[in-house]
Design a protein that fits this description.
Elements (H helix, E strand, L loop, with lengths): L1 E6 L6 H12 L3 E6 L9 H14 L5 E6 L2 H11 L4 E7 L7 H15 L3 H12 L2 H6 L2 H9 L8 H8 L15 E6 L7 H10 L4 E5 L5 H4 L1 H16 L1
């Protein structure tokens, strides 16, 4: 069975970001749910090596990597640092390094998290995460209700944000030598679609697909995201 390493984004978890995807893809893959560390100051390569160790523990000798948001540059670095292990990449809502907009968003995210203002943090994440199409189609009362029950961020959030603020894999993009799909979130207010398309263009032979979502495809179009990822992984496995 093909191994699939899942690398989640900042302030989330493998289940929170990929749970809907794995349920839709079913038992076609052996899933390795990578967990980003909750300790600040770790180097990118240390984090990547920890993800490979998780694959080792799960008995996955080789595997595809599905990286979302912060998980995308980590997946890029993993494919370059451990090329003998990686068979394919799927990068969703990816960035290679944080630009000024992202740094500002991360700074506000960090401040709201530190002060425990979880309702305001949920609104900040919705503003910087959800696309216009989804927001415009959502009843305002329903959105407020959903945000009011947003769970508290995971304990590892500060470490995730610290890593997102300094990661830089621009030099690795041209060294990727496995089939790669870049899933561009075409209404993304956090990572501009233009940046995502430029990342895809910098990876030799990369394919690109677009979803009409913001930065949260698992919330806005989980079925479309899962179908896109599943079709690509099936095509490269054959």
């Amino acid at each position: 069975m093909t191994g699939l390493l899942l690398v989640h984004g900042g302030g989330g978890s493998a289940e929170g970001h990929f749970g809907g995807l794995t349920r839709r893809l079913g038992d076609r893959f052996r899933y390795v749910r990578g967990q980003l560390p909750d300790r600040t100051g770790l180097g990118t390569d240390e984090v990547v090596d920890g993800l490979v160790a998780a694959a080792d523990a799960a008995g996955a000798g080789t595997f595809a990597v599905c990286g979302y948001s912060l998980g995308a540059p980590l997946a890029v670095r993993l494919a370059v640092r451990h090329p003998e292990r990686v068979t394919a990449l799927v990068l969703t809502a990816p960035f290679a390094y944080p630009d000024h907009r992202m740094r500002l968003a991360l700074s506000l995210w960090r401040g709201l998290h530190q002060t425990g203002r979880h309702r305001l943090l949920a609104e900040h994440l919705a503003l910087n995460g959800l696309g216009d199409t989804f927001l415009d189609a959502t009843d305002p009362d329903r959105l407020r209700a959903v945000l009011s029950f947003a769970p508290a961020p995971p304990a590892g959030t500060p470490a995730h944000l610290e890593l997102a603020g300094r990661i830089d894999v621009r030099e690795d993009l041209g060294r990727i030598a496995v089939p790669t799909l870049v899933v561009v979130t075409a209404e993304d207010p956090l990572v501009s679609p233009a940046r995502q398309r430029a990342l895809a263009a910098a990876i030799p032979g990369a394919r690109a697909a677009e979803l009409a979502t913001g930065h949260l495809p698992f919330w806005e179009d989980p079925e479309g995201w899962a179908d896109t990822v599943g079709a690509f992984l099936t095509s490269v496995a054959g």
